[in-house]
């Protein structure tokens, strides 16, 4: 039994005294203790060393007080396991020296054995669960197939992922083959994470908003739906599509336990689009954490009033920014803990 079960209750749609709170990208990025580890160990060493991944995962629980932990790792360990080289260049971000650009390239991509290639993530899950000692739930995650394709084809981050989109629209057969391989891998990966102990999983579709509503269904949602279907009964799935408010109505009928919302969609609009039944998660503008703590607290209370305290998980609308003062992140979390129904 998890002692603080607010997050799991919200995922089940149960009544809570206050909503749970966690922050996307809370593990790493802005905490001073993380920065010290970052100086000592490179990115993938941090991901591949269960002791380090555990330490970084637990940091925000101890130092900021969130109601759920998210495993320290990255969405790009999945393409790495699929035979696509991924580097993390300091100051640049993800760098893939041999991007996937042709059908022949797609044929080189494998659907790997998860225990052999990503066993270190499963070890990190087990170690983190032990360290957390059932205080709060642990969230596992994966990128959406579309978002992984974006990096695999583009080869690096991008403002518009033009090369990735060109690949999909000029070579749809190769694109769908790649998306299916990523989907198959992701399903096995998330199932293994659940077996290792995660209490829920989130799918990050960070670049879904790059697509038109029609193409979103074709190239992104279709594959996320496969993942949700495959995990049904195993665990709770949270689907987060950045910039994907236009698809919220379809997402609400998918079997996902909760949907992430970014800050460009108002709480009222998000509730309206999703029919008012499903749990929603979000949607504080990450840049608003630069505001003074007192202002943050007022805005958080207004946000909870707008979403309603039930069927709601307080979060940011995207990942926390690296230079947010820790006291502002703490004010965000405290505001939720101080919340009283007005
Ligand atoms: O939520 C958490 O704190 C858990 C850890 C986590 C990381 N990445 C650690 C990380 C999670 C959930 C991710 C997801 C991720 N990774 C996404 C989806 C969420 C989003 O922000 O849209 C994406 C698109 C990536 C790809 C990625 N990894 C990028 C673009 C970068 C570089 C820029 C950045 O965000 O800092 C990374 C590197 C990365 N992943 C870092 C961390 C802490 C920073 C590099 C470092 O620590 O050396």
Structure commentary:
With 342 residues, the chain is an alpha/beta fold. The protein has one domain (6-337): TIM Barrel (Alpha-Beta Barrel). Helices cover 49% and strands 12% of the residues. It is built from 15 helices and 9 strands. The chain has helices at residues 6-12, 32-40, 43-48, 50-63, 77-81, 103-108, 114-132, 145-154, 162-170, 172-196, 213-231, 248-251, 267-274, 293-307, 326-337, and strands at 69-70, 87-89, 93-95, 138-143, 200-205, 236-241, 258-261, 279-284, 312-316. The strands form 2 sheets. The chain has a 7-stranded parallel β-sheet, sandwiched between helices. A two-stranded antiparallel ribbon has the order 2-3. α7 packs across α10 (172-196), α8 (145-154) crosses α9 (162-170) and α14 packs across α15 (326-337). Coproporphyrinogen III (CP3) binds next to β3.
């Amino acid at each position: 039994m998890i002692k603080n079960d607010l997050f799991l209750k919200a995922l089940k749609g149960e009544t809570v005294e206050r909503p749970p709170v966690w922050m996307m990208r809370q593990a790493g990025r802005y905490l001073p203790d993380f920065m010290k580890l970052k100086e000592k160990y490179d990115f993938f060493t941090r991901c591949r060393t269960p002791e380090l991944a555990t330490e970084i995962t637990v940091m925000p629980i101890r130092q900021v007080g969130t109601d759920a932990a998210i495993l320290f790792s990255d969405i790009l360990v999945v393409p790495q396991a699929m035979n696509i080289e991924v580097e993390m260049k300091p100051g640049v971000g993800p760098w893939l020296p041999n991007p996937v650009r042709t059908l022949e390239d797609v044929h080189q991509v494998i659907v790997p054995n998860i225990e052999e290639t990503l066993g270190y993530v499963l070890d990190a899950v087990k170690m983190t669960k032990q360290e957390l000692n059932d205080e709060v739930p642990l969230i596992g995650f994966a990128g959406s197939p579309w978002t992984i394709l974006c990096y695999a084809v583009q080869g690096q981050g991008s403002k518009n992922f033009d090369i990735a989109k060109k690949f999909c629209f000029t070579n749809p057969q190769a694109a769908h083959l790649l998306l299916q391989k990523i989907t198959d891998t992701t399903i096995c990966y998330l199932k293994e994470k659940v077996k290792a102990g995660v209490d829920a999983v989130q799918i990050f579709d960070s670049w879904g908003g790059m697509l038109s509503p029609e193409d979103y269904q074709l190239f992104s949602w279709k594959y996320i739906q496969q993942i949700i279907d495959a995990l049904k009964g195993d665990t709770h799935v949270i689907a987060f599509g950045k910039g994907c408010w236009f698809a919220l109505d379809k997402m609400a009928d998918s079997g996902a336990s909760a949907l992430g919302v970014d800050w460009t969609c108002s709480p009222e609009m998000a509730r309206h689009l999703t029919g008012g039944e499903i749990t929603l998660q979000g949607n504080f503008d990450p840049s608003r954490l630069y505001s003074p703590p007192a202002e943050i607290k007022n805005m958080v209370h207004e946000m909870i009033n707008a979403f309603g305290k039930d069927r709601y998980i307080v979060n940011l609308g995207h990942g926390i920014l690296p230079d947010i003062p820790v006291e502002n992140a703490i004010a965000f979390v405290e505001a939720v803990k101080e919340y009283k129904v007005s």
